Amino acid sequence: MSNRPTGFCDHCGLPLGYGRHQGEREGEAGQFCCYGCFIGWQAARGGGDDVVAAAFLIRLGLGAFLAMNIMLFSLLLYSEALDGIDGWLKPYFHGLLWVLATPVLVILGGPFFKEAFEAARRARLVSSILVVIGTSAAYTYSAIVTLEGGDRVYFDAVAIVLVLFTLGRYLEADGRARAARSLRPMMEAERLEVRCVEDGLEIFRPLADIETGMLVRIEPGERIGVDGVVREGVSQAEESSITGEPWPLPKNPGASVLAGSINGDGTLLVETSVAGLASRWIAICRDVRAALSRPTRAQKLAEMVAGAFIPLVIALAAGTIWVGWQNGAGEAALMSGLAVLVVACPCALGLATPLATSVAIARLAEAGILVRSGVVLETLANIRIMALDKTGTLTAGRCKCRDVIVDNVDPDNALERAASLATTSEHPLSKAICRAAHDQDIDILPISNVEIVPGMGVRGVMDGDVMLLGSDRWLEREGIRISDKLRAKALVAAEKGQMVSMIAWQGVARSLLTFDDARHPDAETLISTLERDGIQAIILTGDGALQTERFCRLIGATEWSAELMPEDKRDKLAHLASGGRPLAMVGDGANDALALTTASVGIAVGGATELTRETADVVLPPVGITALPELLRIARLARQTIRTNLLWAFGYNSIALVLAMIGILQPVVAAALMAGSSLFVVVNTITRLGPNHRSSGNSKPLIYHQNAAS
Amino acid sequence: MGFFLVAMLAGFAGSFHCVGMCGGFACGLAQSRSGSRVDVLIHSLLYNLGRLTTYAFIGALAGAFGAVLVSADPLVAHAQHDGTHPMGMILAGEIGLAQRALSIVAGLLMLLMALDLLGLRRHIPTSWARLGGETVARIFHTLLISKRPSAAIALGVANGFLPCPLVLAFAAAAAATGTVTSAILIMIAFGLGTFPAMLFMGAVGVLMTPAVRIWGVRLSGAFVFIIGLVTLARGIIPGLLHGMHMA
After folding, report:
1. DSSP code of A393?
2. Which of A202-211, A438-447, A661-670, B135-144 is predicted least confidently?
3. Which residues contact A699 (CB under 8 A, 6 or more apart)?
4. Which of A258, A435, A643, A698 has a CA between 20 and 30 Å from the CA of residue A2?
5. In the predicted model, what is the mean pLDDT of residues A19-41?
């Protein structure tokens, strides 16, 4: 008795006792004396104040009430209880059952009738038609028996089948909602309301009313609704769904926060930097929603099969009844026919693919990976070749200018000229030059007549001198003289795996700039993962052959193609794909746009910019290729889940169908089996693909505390 | 009839716990409907009617389960076939072997539930509770806030299916009877026993302090304990208490 829990139930106020339950709802913890109290407490704190759901539940409850009464009376009528009662009472009981069954057919059967009728008007068959035919046939038959004073009515089967079917639909819907729970914030992103602080008052405002420069308060654990800069408060934020960064990042005054990230355990006051609906998070949410609305090939196929299935089942049911009737089975044949109709309902079939796809897309979105559609996911699971761009994809994209080697000029002068040209370009090497100049306090001088030659370099005029900054190949092609000394140094650098760039003026190459391109920390892991999964990795780059070879050896890649122009990359991909093998291209959304659109699946690194969203099928978060193995894993997992779902839906339906045809399966059992089939698909999908426990509360506070301590 | 009376008394005593728990729903039902007293009473009646139907239905299922087991007993089947009392029936007393086994299992289950109600044992593992809790919670909440009379029935129906130890205990007792009719009647008796407290729970909730309520739960635990012992004894000692056998 010593460890008996103390305290009182949060719901009913009774002492806790040994039946103690602990539960949580939206962060609020409670303890209860029993399960019922736990549920009661949760219910009282609400959540589902949806009018549609309420109407549905009321219908279901009312239907169940009537159906249970019908079944009770039927049991009494056909079991031992009324054996002694004279036959004259029976028709009255039948009449009573008829009266009770009619509203069940209306309130529970109604939605099925409506669905079937509306589909029929568009000349389509839906699975509801099976329920409609089955229950209305049994109902009509029983009504005739009642009028004629016959022996046995089947109103109980009608009512229970409808209840179980409706209940199955509900549980399935609920399971789906749970499976796709991680999608919920994305579905409702625009409807989010944020706490605006105006004149010291907190006012809830929808995102649409949020403008740049407003102050927004963010409570601990909340999803941050706006992009902005922290003005007050200290906290952390988990930005995985935007940046792919799995660990919470500290947020102090001056730090920028991103909409869509989850605030840690401090309160923040944030000044918005863009309008509420202009954040990247909103754009991501729109993309995910668009992706979910595009049906996949497997889904279209399943729908087609289900469509063909329905007339077949109706024929089978009719055949079952006819054969049974011929063999003298009488009314039992009618029940077998009803069981056939009920058990063959291909609900699980229609659910198998879209559910798995949605859950997978949701889960990827949670990790910051945007997938354009379910079709992309299907293709990804099948790819055998993956082409990867080098700079910015397999390298960290932030390279460092290492040496400035000069040929009879002042190094500072060379760097000054190079940096002045480089400011006009967005190329990673240009940025490295600018950083180097900045570090050495070298000024940028004005340049005129700037011309950027994609894949080559930049040309511009300074103090009347035409200057070129770019690859040695381009300089040569432009007729620039390159001294043997610079050539030799360039070769040495390339052998070390460094990248090189040259700056020339007055027709002569004056200086060689060498760069260290830091490998992406996960480049090696990625290559070995791809190899393990039997995916051929090919590196396509515009860089020189020597440094490419050197780089590829470092990360363990065995196939590469160097010195490629954007068009060359496209041609190369077209060549690789000519065997009909699906092919993925991973690259920088801006420089590799052409290649990305050529591949079966174009995967862009570097976050969702307007441009990459146009050209890529998949957008990786800013962590880049780190997210790639997870993407492939989920894609394959989704394929596997879809396969088991389909196998189950087909197999289960087929076996049950045979049992029903030979009369072993009662309609009521058949209806229960059907509901079970859909539930299996839901549960299978959740257990295989559902959100893992990473985001479910327990681990997060731990991380925060660790951070706070360190 | 004694059996039904005890079931009803257990329901009555146990319902004071329900006022805290299930009654929470019914209270909510009364509060959320700002109509006249008559309206509130009608809603309460509908709610309880729904609950009673579910109990009867659970009784029917349990009874049907028991009946199937009993009729599957080879001795019973044999006896039914030729109309004689074979040796086995004599050995088993009034009832067949299958029904004896059923009585023992049901009796043990009831004793467990009684310990539960008496606060001496830990029941349903929390992990089970987590499984469907959220779905169930949402159902109740949705039904609670609806103002339609039909929502009251639906709420009662759903409430009846909550895994309450009392209901489980009487479902076991119902199964042990081995006949559908007696099974339904037991559950109806139990359900009727819970009526008074649940119908007027507004008043009960105010009058009854948690201390009083916990004694109600203990009392109902004692009743369940008695019925459990009787059921168990019917399985173990042949011929005992056949006056309570209601077939």
Report:
1. I
2. B135-144
3. A693
4. A698
5. 66
Task: Let me know: does A403 contact A395? Beta carbons within 8 Å.
Answer: no
Q: Which residues of A touch B116 (CB under 8 A)?
A: 19
Measured distance CA(A79)–CA(A102) in Å, rounded: 23
Query: Which pLDDT does position B122 carry in this prediction?
Result: 56
Distance CA B247, CA A323 (A): 41
The Cα–Cα gap between A198 and A220 comes to 20
Residue type, A283: A
Query: Which two three-digit tokens encode residue A606?
Result: 């570097």
DSSP A395: B
- Split at pLDDT 50, 70, 90, the class of A179 is low
Instruction: Tell me which residue of B204, B176, B191 sits closest to B57, measured CA to CA.
Output: B191
ipTM metric: 0.77
Residue carrying structure tokens 């591949």: A599
Give the distance from residue A160's alpha carbon to the nearest chain B alpha carbon, in angstroms. Answer: 12
Does B22 contact A43 at a Cβ distance shorter than 8 Å? no
Give the count of beta carbons closer than 10 Å to the beta carbon of residue A406.
Answer: 19
> How many beta-carbon pairs under 8 angstroms link A with B?
181
Check CB contact under 8 Å for A14 and B17. yes
> Is residue A463 among the annotated active site residues?
no
Q: Which one-letter amino acid corresponds to residue A520?
A: H
Can you tell me the distance from the alpha carbon of B69 to that of B87, in angstroms, rounded to the nearest whole number?
20
| Residue in chain A lying closest to B141 (CA) | A43
What was the pLDDT predicted at A27? 63
DSSP letters spanning A540-589: E-SS-HHHHHHHHHHHT---EE-S--HHHHHHHHHHHGGGS--EEEEEET
Q: How far does chain A reach from its first CA to its final CA, in angstroms? A: 41
Contacts of A548 (CB under 8 A, 6+ apart): A390, A539, A541, A560, A562, A563
